[in-house]
Design a protein that fits this description.
This protein is an alpha+beta fold and 137 residues long. It contains one helix and seven strands, in the order H-E-E-E-E-E-E-E.
């Protein structure tokens, strides 16, 4: 019975060490994997030619020694809801941005956030926020 108790303790100890090693792996401390989609918010309308701000829920960990520079957001703005016309992109690690005025003559600007995460199960294409349409006056 003594040897089986030692074997059981060894198995439990090995399992605990393996679990701790996974929890302390570089780039994953404090991160949620897979990363959830952010929720984007913006103004109800903007004036033509004026800058405006967008913000979203921060789904990435704060940049530090435990996170990777590969973790960032791509802010997309387009003239159509399909993000094919007049598309421009800005990369940031923050969860808010001030954008310069959109294309001249735009009546509505469409926005979304793509997440690029070092999480092994993440893909920038798969992690997309809601779309926010902002009328331009």
């Amino acid at each position: 019975m003594g040897s089986s108790l030692r074997l059981s303790r060894s198995i439990v100890r090995a399992a605990l060490l393996a679990a701790l090693a996974g929890a302390w792996a570089p780039g994953t401390r404090g991160a949620t994997c897979p990363v959830p989609a952010p929720v984007l918010t913006g103004p109800s309308e903007v004036q033509a030619g004026e800058s405006y701000s967008l913000s979203w829920t921060n789904v990435l960990t704060t940049p530090s020694t435990s996170t990777s520079n590969a973790d960032y957001y791509i802010v997309e703005r387009a003239l159509d809801a399909g993000f094919t016309s007049g598309l421009d992109e800005t990369t940031t690690q923050r969860s808010a941005i001030t954008l310069t005025p959109g294309a001249a003559g735009a009546t509505v600007l469409y926005h979304r956030i793509l997440v690029k995460s070092s999480c092994p199960t993440a893909s920038a294409v798969a992690i997309v926020s809601n779309v926010v349409a902002v009328p331009v006056n």
